[in-house]
Amino acid sequence: MGYIKIDNVSKDYGQGRGIFNINFEVKKGEVFGYLGPNGAGKTTTIRTLLGFIKADSGQITIDNVNTWKGHHLTNANIGYLPGEINFPSSMNGYEVLKWNAELRNVNDLTLQNELIEYFELKNLHTKVKRMSKGMKQKLGIICAFMHDPDTLILDEPTSGLDPLMQDKFVRLIKKEKEKGKTILMSSHMFNEIEKTCDRVAIIRAGNIVSIFDLKEIFDGEEETFEITFKDEKTAKKYAKNKDNVIVEGNAVRITIIRHDVDDFLKGINKYEVIKLIEVKKTLEEVFMSYYSSKNKGDDNHAI
Asked: Which of 91, 131, 256, 297 is 20 to 30 A removed from 245 (C-alpha atoms)?
């Protein structure tokens, strides 16, 4: 049963720009990744979800409440991190946090202060207009999490963060998932999606092209191996009459069904093998299969 339901939602800006017939659900307690390049339609979907934009058709509900008609109810318990953070430039960090706490009716600042320490956010007296991208991003994350919401909507959450802070963010998401939070996270960062999400939707030019369970992708029925033989002649001899093989010099990449692994290993024992490695499938490979040249269309219309 979906906690967040996006049902056949479209927002057409003309000339092929917008989002079209978007359908997916996010289960309660699930971390759901929304993956696509810049301009694919991720932010438009999220802004429609939050009731900032009215859809041309379809509807979105959170816990069975329509997010356009009842956004004052749904947004009260959502932590939202926008893709472009735009705090008042004349405020300093302390003032932004105080302003956010007042908006959220947060009186206990324990969690806020823990997050400030966790993300090593210093120099809060600095005005927003003088903050680095990374500092503003940390401030935005803290504002999204400080009222301990049940639902988190995060648009490109690690943009501008250095690798250390990106890793800390991933650990924070895992901790929130353990608490049973429902999280929708848009990104074009494969690594953070792989590490945190249960399921993923890929959006391309305003259309959902695939929704899948990450566990099924990584623990599927097929396995891929790369075999390095002593020379190119041996590699070609081995690959002859075999399906799902790619030969590059003296190396062969082969994909087989998992229950055939024993037969595969017995088969390569007949040849002089220099190296054998298992090639793990990555989210990037799955993603690129939908953006390969053979599938390429006009991807510049979604916003």
From this structure: 297
Describe the strand order of the beta sheet including 31-35 as a list of residue ranges.
78-81, 151-155, 182-187, 31-35, 199-204, 207-213
Q: What's 50's DSSP letter?
A: T
CA 135 to mean position of chain CA atoms:
21
pLDDT digits (tens, 9 = 90+) for 34-46: 998 888 999 999 9
CA–CA separation, 26 vs 2, rounded Å?
5
pLDDT digits (tens, 9 = 90+) for 272-297: 999 999 988 788 887 887 776 445 44
> pLDDT for 184-218, tens place per residue?
999 888 889 999 999 999 999 999 999 999 888 77
CA 52 → CA 3, 19, 33, 139, 226, distances in Å? Answer: 19, 15, 21, 22, 49
- Tell me the C-alpha distance between 79 and 143, whole Å: 8
DSSP symbols for 148-202: --SEEEEESTTTT--HHHHHHHHHHHHHHHHTT-EEEEEES-HHHHHHH-SEEEE
Q: Residue 104 is which amino acid?
A: R
Angle at 197 between CA 27 and CA 87, to 5 degrees: 90
Closest residue by Cα to residue 189 from 38, 293, 29, 18: 38
Token duo for residue 180: 């049973």
**302, two tokens:** 């979604």
Question: Backbone phi, then psi, for 80, in 5-degree steps?
Answer: -120, 130
Rg for the chain (alpha carbons), in Å? 23
Q: What's the pLDDT band for 29 if we cut at 50, 70, 90?
A: very high
Confidence at residue 292, expressed as pLDDT on a 0 to 100 scale? 67
Pick the CATH number of 221-279 from 2.60.120, 3.30.70, 3.10.50, 1.10.8: 3.30.70
- Residue that has been written with the tokens 């008042």 in this structure: 88
CATH topology of domain 2-217: Rossmann fold (3.40.50)
